[in-house]
Amino acid sequence: MFFGRQIILIFFALIFGGKAVFAAEGSKEERAYAAAIAAFQDAMWSRAETEFAGFVDKYPKSERIPEAILMQAQAELKQGKLPSAIALLSAKRATAGKFADQYVYWIGEAQYQNGDFSLAAQTFTSLAHDFPESTLRLRAVVEAAAALAQLNKWTQVAALLEEPGGVFQRAIQLDAADELVSRGRLLLAQAKLERGDFNGATAVLQSLAAQPLKTELDWQRAYLLYQVKMAAGDLNAALTTATNLFQISKLARDNGLSAESVAMRAAALEKLNRSDEAAAAYSENLSSNAPPENQRQAILKIAELAIAQKKFPEAGQSLEKFLAQFPDSPAADAALLTLGELHLKEYVAQPATNDLQTASTLFSQFLTTYTNSPLTGKAYLDRGWCDWIDGKIPESAADFKMALQKLPPSEDQAVARFKLGDALFKQNDFVHARENYRAVLNDFPQFPAVEKTLHSLALYQIVQASLKLNDVIGASNAMAQVLKFYPASPVADNSLLLVGEGYEDLNQPAKARELFQRFQKLYPTLPLRSQVELAIGRTYELEGNWPAAIGQYEGWLKNFPTNTFLPQVNYSLAWANFQAGNETNAFTLFTNFTAQFPTNELAPFAQWWVADHFYRTGTNFVDAEKNYQIFFQTWPTNPLAFQARMMAGRSAVGRLGYSDAIRYFNTLTTNADCPPDLNAQALFAFGSALMQMNSTDTNNPLANFQSATNLFGQIIQLYPTNELAALAWGEIGDCNLQLTNYDAATNAYAQTVNSSWANISARSQAQIGLGLALEKKAAASSGDDQKNLLQLALQNYLDVLYGNNLRDGETPDSFWVKKAGLQAAALAESLGEWQQAANVYQRLEKLLPPLRDSLEKKIAAAQEHFTSQKN
Fold it and tell me: Which of 208, 332, 585, 749 has the fewest C-beta atoms lying within 10 Å of its C-beta?
């Protein structure tokens, strides 16, 4: 659970309320009670428990009995005697008097600590309900929410904390800065995050950011904000938040939080594909101050990033430096193992090196040094791979067998089982090899990745082993399972062989085809021949040999005209024709497919292709719209149905049918099930269509621009971090320009120009729009104001023309550069800045060669004006 609970001693403040404890010189009863209190204050829990129990026994009529029982229960709780504390408080609850609410609270606290979260939630909730005057009500509600969070009952957490007029909502109104209120808000934000309400979670966390928090709570707030931004895909914001987390952890002086903050920053950089920066960030956790788990994570991540970038030496140097600097680190075993794996992977990438021997040596060193490491099984597996690649098959079999024994049930153990089968196969022990392959199929149902990556391979190896044993039925059954359950797998398509002479290379379709053709020759009368020939066609697809694939599928259709795979082959034939550039044939085949197999699972994809075909022409938008419409009407629950409606709208725009387009877009924007990204696109397209369509209000010809502004405003409000929000500001600027709201236009354009989400094209367009709006404002001004506005407009055009608006890694958009140049030249002329105009025309000559003659004339005229100005 994320919410940081604190077990705090609230007893004295609640019970005594500032009253002095018994004086030492009082009665025996007073002295006995004072002695018990002193033991409790000194954290002598066992002694305090005994003292309070003795007090209750010796002075049963004392008015302090309810207090003493409560203190005795807390002393038991401090010792972990949770059932005893619960039993004591429950038994004496009826005589608790004014302490009844505290009895209930500590029962709930003990239940919570005992892991009885459901009971704890009920107990805390009952306190808030049954004791309306209790000062513990707010604490009880927050603790109840924390207990529900432990049970992942996030809907109940949110309901409890958001109850209108409830304890927590009243507490927010009375004292929003109270620590308990802050903790409750953190729980509420987490509940919204867990339920996918990212905007709601962000709003709660932002409300907390406006008030001072303890360092611990501030870190938790930032941590949750990071999780929200990562889940929402707002990676730049997540990166900023992770940086803030690190600064907060420094204030907390907590190495664990610092290491976690570093790891989160690295994860955000990794998601942003800034691999070098991510690796550098992870390396910050390769220090003695970072907890072992963070060190291990850093080691593995640095290696993973290096492998992805094929930067093996850099990763190896980092690991070697770590081992030299921290040889006794708890993560040293992981570092040594990972270093060996790096050398192994580098050898696979570049076999002509000594990395294989280095890797094997490092794994042997690991097995000698770290005999009790939990990574021992992985080291045996890795060394087995080294032996396998080096051709030391018996040695690899021994290592794979040891790995199988040492590894816990896992994906790695499944790999060890598979490779043991491979090693036995290599040694012609086909019986035991097949047993191991079958174990891969049967022994790992709790690991879906094993089925995804190894089942098809194991089935194929069973085929091979069965054939070696002359077990035709066994081979046929295994192949049938491959073709039935994994028809698109690498085994079915390119017979990804890991073993067998001549089959050591991976992902080679020709090898797969060779196997299927061999199977055909051995067993020509088996009913599997149609599936095998289909698989042969797919091998041609994987090679990109589309003519051969077309020939294979056409032959299949002649040979098996009534086979159950008929729809699949027809679709594959149509797709192969499309890939081969036979657009007309593909159109005919896909059109026939939708008519012949309207209920087949591939029919929607065929219909989509037909619609896209018309749309791709760039002219036949009528048929494109018609076919997209057929799609969403025929398959309204298909995941592509919303997109089909969107494309129908775009097609309608293409044929200038703006009112129909608006109808499509409006249907999407008002459908709660429409995916957010598509909803944003629909709002944008809706607004764009309105801008292009003539107003139906004859008294207000610009009415559509105002309506469009409202739609673009919705995008900005609903999707502030979406790239379309930046574009929407530019469209709002265009609308206000038409509406002669020039101040609003300049403000809107500036939003796009300054947006981190806008690309160079959007920013260039907006900056030109900004210049146009400034020119319009200047027309209504005079004197210096007019001149200043025109100069500002000119500078905006020149920024685009000369690339002053480019950011790192960007290239200019030639269309907008040319547009900016034409605007700048015209404005420079009107300002009488003839040399500037001539310079712009000279630059435009290079950008617009067809206009060279007319531009030369303009250059000559500008220079003539300039000369005359000087004279």
Answer: 585
Residue 293 phi, psi (nearest 5): -65, -35
* Cβ atoms of residues 290 and 325 within 8 Å: no
Distance separating alpha carbons of residues 721 and 232, to the nearest angstrom? 10
Q: Tally DSSP H helices, then E strands, for the chain.
A: 46, 0
Q: Using the 8-state DSSP alphabet, how is residue 471 labeled?
A: -
Task: Annotate 321-354 with three-state secondary structure.
Answer: HHHHHCCCCCCHHHHHHHHHHHHHHHHHHCCCCC
Q: How far apart are CA 576 and CA 140, in angstroms?
A: 66
* Residue 853 CB-density burial (10 A; 0-12 exposed, 13-18 middle, 19+ buried): exposed
* Structure token digits, residue 328: 């006794």
Give yes or no for a contact between 475 and 466, defined as CB atoms under 8 angstroms apart.
yes
Token pair of 184 as six digits = 């409750």
Tokens of 301: 């991540």
Instruction: Give residue 507's pLDDT band: very low, low, confident or very high (50, 70, 90).
Output: very low
Give per-residue pLDDT as tens, 119-162.
999 999 999 899 999 999 999 999 999 999 999 999 999 999 99
Q: What are phi and psi of 759, to 5 degrees?
A: -85, 175
Burial 381-412 (b: 16+ CB within 10 A, else e): bbbbbbbbbeebbebbbbbbbbbbebbeebbb
Q: Kindly report the number of other CB atoms within 10 A of residue 496's CB atom.
A: 20
pTM, full prediction: 0.46
User: The dihedral of CA 68, 73, 76, 77: what is its sign?
Assistant: negative
Query: What are the φ and ψ backbone dihedral angles of 96, each rounded to 5 degrees?
Result: -75, -20
Q: Could you count the other beta carbons within 10 Å of the beta carbon of residue 243?
A: 15
| Distance, CA of 56 to CA of 75 (rounded, Å) | 14
Assigned token pair, 105: 């609270």
Q: How far is CA 390 from CA 294, 356, 360, 499, 704, in A?
A: 34, 8, 10, 14, 73
User: Which two structure tokens, joined as six digits, stand for 75?
Assistant: 């002393």
The DSSP secondary-structure symbol of 101 reads H
Cα(308)–Cα(302) distance, rounded to whole angstroms? 10
Rg, Å, the chain Cα set: 37
460: nearest Cα among 428, 425, 429, 427: 425
